């Protein structure tokens, strides 16, 4: 996914910074990471306060295979499908990701 498309997805927050990392990209707002781009998919940050909303909307939690073949769950979730057709819904999910990023600093 190119940076212009990513910036458009997150425009409701204001300016974002995109940095290359782990063979993908980290997406930051106000110095806090709130999303990743991995294999051309945007994954939004969630935490104990918001993960259930992602799950209820049909999002998938990102996991990778760790040592010994064990799945390692990460605090990033796919974007619910409805958000891609509705800018207000996308803004809602992006805001939830940023709120999770803010809480992770505490």
TrEMBL record:
* TfoX N-terminal domain ranges (all copies): 8-101
Q: Which domain of life is it from?
A: Bacteria
What is the name of the protein in this document?
Answer: DNA transformation protein
Source species taxonomy: Bacteria, Pseudomonadati, Pseudomonadota, Alphaproteobacteria, Hyphomicrobiales
């Amino acid at each position: 996914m190119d940076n212009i498309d990513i910036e458009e997805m997150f425009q409701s927050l204001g300016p974002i910074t995109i940095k290359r990392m782990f063979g993908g990209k980290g997406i930051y707002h106000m110095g806090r990471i709130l999303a990743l781009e991995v294999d051309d998919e945007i994954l939004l940050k969630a935490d104990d306060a918001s993960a259930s909303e992602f799950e209820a909307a049909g999002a998938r939690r990102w996991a990778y295979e760790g040592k010994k073949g064990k799945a390692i769950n990460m605090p990033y979730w796919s974007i619910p499908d409805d958000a891609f057709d509705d800018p207000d819904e996308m803004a809602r999910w992006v805001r939830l990701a940023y709120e999770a990023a803010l809480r992770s600093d505490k």
